Amino acid sequence: VEIITDVAALQARTLGWRAGGLRVGFVPTMGFLHRGHTSLMSLARPRCDKVVVSIFVNPLQFGPAEDLDRYPRDPEGDAAKCEAAGVDLLFVPDTAGGGFYPGDFSTTVAVSGLTSGLCGGKRPGHFEGVTTVVARLFGMVQPSLAVFGEKDYQQLAVIRRMVRDLAMPIEVVGGPLVRDDDGLALSSRNAYLSDEQRARGLSLHRALVAIAASPEREVAALKARGQAMIEADRLDYLEIVDAETLAPLAEVDRPARALAAGFFGATRLIDNVAIAPK
Ligand code: PAF
Predict the structure, then answer these.
(1) Which residues is 248 bridged to in the sheet?
(2) Which among 26, 27, 30, 40 is the best mutation to test ligand 1's pocket, defined by most ligand atoms within 8 Å of the CB?
(3) What was the pLDDT predicted at 108?
(4) Average pLDDT in the 189-199 region?
(5) Are the beta carbons of 176 and 202 closer than 8 angstroms?
(6) Is the pLDDT of residue 98 over 70?
(7) Which residue lies with its CA nearest to atom 3 of ligand 1?
(8) Coil, strand, or helix at residue 118?
(9) 189 phi and psi, to 5 degrees?
(10) What mean pLDDT comes out for the span 48-76?
(11) DSSP letter, residue 254
């Protein structure tokens, strides 16, 4: 895999590919890659001529008390995983000097409505940070297609809306959530968990599966059942929403999604499952 750290060199390469009629696929990441990320690369690979992966731990999407400073990193391991996944270009922006954002960077991309609840409600400014960096990365990479994981279900919906609203000529593909053998949703942040926290973290998935399997239609009853099962130190939210609009539901009468976020020690885990109409 070719590794590029300079924006001008990246754009020269990707614009050259586009001019040659090649379809460029893009998987943006924050690194410390796992099977969830490589599954997104595998979705891009057969759909595109060239696959670009970026690794950038984006400060704009972290709150002041969050884990920006200790976010796990593994540059060599990440490059090896990209190589094995058949990635053509790995973009690791050089953050020295001017950094990724110029000193007078003054643009924010914000999607309203979809970002007000769930993680957006609990992490103020998070999605503005995500949409701003993703819009900037799209400008840098100029992809025809971009892949995002359903693990961050709200993020995927927000990116789809941004791409639609700003008429970006990019096909957004969602990749299914990938789990460890024990059922824990793969996340770079799982590396923070002690064995005991990890064991309790599995309760998120168990609760969501129980909700999806229940014949109950009333959301209040389903949430009460799920909440009783989750062994978090602090439950951020457990919600059942319309799968498309993310609007809260009173009854499961259409395709829905159950989503949960909670703290296990200092580590915040998120998970979600699809719920078919009952
Ligand atoms: O999902 C992530 O890893 C990040 O939010 C993303 C999309 C790479 C933007 O920094």
Answers:
(1) 241
(2) 30
(3) 98
(4) 97
(5) no
(6) no
(7) 29
(8) helix
(9) -75, -15
(10) 97
(11) S
**What are the catalytic residues?**
37
What SS3 class is residue 264?
strand
The phi-psi region of residue 46 (left if phi > 0; otherwise alpha if psi is between -120 and 50; otherwise beta) is alpha
Q: pLDDT tens digits for 232-252? A: 999 999 999 999 999 999 999
Residue 179: CB atoms within 10 Å: 16
> What φ, ψ does residue 135 adopt, rounded to 5°?
-60, -40
Please report the atom of ligand 1 found closest to the CA of residue 29.
8
Question: CB under 6 Å to ligand 1: residues?
Answer: 28-30, 58, 61, 130, 133-134, 152, 155
Instruction: List, in sequence order, every residue forming a beta bridge with 148; answer none if it has no partner.
Output: 174
220 vs 217: CA distance, rounded Å: 9
Cα–Cα distance list, 139 to 14, 130, 216, 273 (Å): 11, 14, 46, 32
The string of pLDDT tens digits covering residues 36-52 is 999 999 999 999 999 99
In sequence order, the 6+-apart residues with CB closer than 8 A to the CB of 254 are 242, 243, 277
Provide mean pLDDT across the span 251-260: 97
State if pTM tops 0.90.
yes
